[in-house]
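Sequence only, no structure available. Ideas?
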Amino acid sequence: MSEMSGRDETSADDVDAELDPRAAAALLGQSTAMAQRQFNVWPPFLLLIGTVLFPFAFGAVWWSVRGQHPYVGPTGGALAVMYSIVAVWIISVSVALRRALSGIGGRTVRQRRVEAFGLAGVLIAVYVFQGALLHAHVSHAIVYGVYPVTAPFIFVGSAFALNCAARDDWRKVYVAAPIVVAALVAAFTGPVVSWLVVGAGLGVVLLGLAVVQLRQLRVPSTP
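Reply:
I predicted one. Tokens follow.
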């Protein structure tokens, strides 16, 4: 009889343990953190490739404008190299992320799509305004130098950082903010050197992000 009573008490304790709200909250927190960590991970290998490609791409443009007096702007070939490298890298990262997030849906994915369209709209506005500067006969040093290499990162980066801060996604803020700072610094270095400064800044930021992602992947998940 006492044995049966002991079994009943053990069963009751197991049920209480299973229904313990503190344990359930802890489990939910761990699951949420793991899902968020998996959702936000960028492919470190592609990030490391970007640390080399971006300085090379912007360096190619710098090479085409070095020694220009007066400044007339990058050559078409240099711009083609830069935009091709950047486009291929962005597409590669997008494909990798899409594969990693396959099967994940809901409000978060829809929100990210809306944010992507919003940032694309800001980028389009930046280049439309470049046309307005050209129409106003602003010097080539601004229209084809300082503005196109810094303005996209300043305005799009700032909008992205503010949006992430509103969602308490501080890790992305820590990525966007240095890019904005690098572009602001580059704006004061002139139309030639600014290409090098932005390229180097992007390389450093991507290297830092790659290191963080590699460390994150090595952290074992809490059972």
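The two ends are 37 Å apart (CA to CA).
Hope that gets you unstuck.
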